[in-house]
Design a protein that fits this description.
The complex is a heterodimer. By secondary structure, chain A is mostly helical. Chain A contains 4 helices and no strands. In chain A, helix 3 packs antiparallel against helix 4. Chain B has a 3-stranded antiparallel sheet with strand order 1-5-4, with no helix packed on it. A two-stranded antiparallel sheet of chain B has the order 2-3. By secondary structure, chain B is of the alpha+beta class. In chain B, 19% of the residues are buried. Chain B starts with 8 loop residues before the first helix and ends in a 5-residue tail after the last helix. Classes of the chains: A mainly alpha, B alpha+beta.
Chain lengths: 106, 143
């Protein structure tokens, strides 16, 4: 079932704990399956924040006339836009996968 | 440029080429601006500026064979003797009536200017097409 594994991968990436992991441990001890620290989505958000900060700083420099290479600003704005679109796409897929699971009737 | 690690190396590579070609255009503009800069025989003539470019090492995430673009590393200077011209009316003329004009060929400079302009536009096209490619990739299964 590649689809289920894929949904599980997306949910793990954004920090949703898999309930099966907590239940099936030995000696009846239920482990708390905590989300991984610094998971992929958090790293992506940090990278996105850095890219947008960089684009904003270059925009200020371009507006005040301190920017010698004008293409630096347009390239930074392009990268920030692409990373934002990528982050939004990941979020949409994760939310859709979560809703898909929640819609499952018992 | 920026010190952050970019997720899209193609933009950094094209950006390095844009910077280098901008500097090359500045050097060509300098040469053309000084094309009538006459010096007396006692001094060196205006020397033509050449920008020395060097390829950058590969960026992390790319195979080693693919470099990281280009960077201007040095400026070379042309002939200091220049063109020695007989012009006795010139205020800089020495006792033989000679002055130094820069050994800058205007046709060469204009050809280089067109090369620099085309290279700049081609790298802008690289940025444009890469951006369109990635945006289309994000539309697979997208909103």
């Amino acid at each position: 079932m590649g689809g289920v594994a894929g949904i599980g991968g997306v949910l793990n990436a954004i920090g949703f704990a898999s309930p099966a992991k907590g239940v099936t441990d030995a000696a009846g001890v239920v482990e708390e399956a905590a989300p991984a620290k610094g998971n992929a989505f958090t790293q992506m958000l940090e990278g996105l924040q850095a890219a947008q900060d960089n684009a904003d700083n270059l925009a200020v420099a371009a507006a005040t006339g301190n920017l010698t290479d004008i293409h630096n600003y347009t390239i930074a704005a392009t990268e920030a836009q692409l990373m934002t679109d990528l982050t939004v796409a990941i979020r949409n897929r994760a939310v859709e996968a979560f809703n898909e699971i929640m819609r499952m009737q018992p | 440029m920026s010190g952050i690690e970019s997720m899209f190396p193609v933009f950094q590579i094209a950006g390095s080429a844009l910077t280098t070609n901008r500097i090359w255009m500045n050097a060509i503009a300098d040469n053309i601006a000084n094309i009538n800069n006459v010096r007396p025989m006692s001094e060196a003539a205006y020397q033509e500026r050449f920008v020395v470019a060097q390829e950058l090492p590969s960026r992390p995430g790319d195979p080693v064979g693919i470099g990281g673009g280009v960077a201007p590393v040095a400026v070379e200077y042309g002939d200091p003797e220049g063109m020695v011209v007989y012009d006795p009316q010139h205020p800089y003329a020495d006792e033989n009536g000679l002055v130094r004009r820069p050994a800058v060929n205007l046709a060469d400079q204009m050809a280089n200017l067109i090369l620099a302009q085309r290279a700049y536009q081609l790298n802008l096209a690289v940025v444009d097409r890469a951006r369109d490619s990635y945006l289309q990739a994000l539309q697979i299964n997208g909103r």
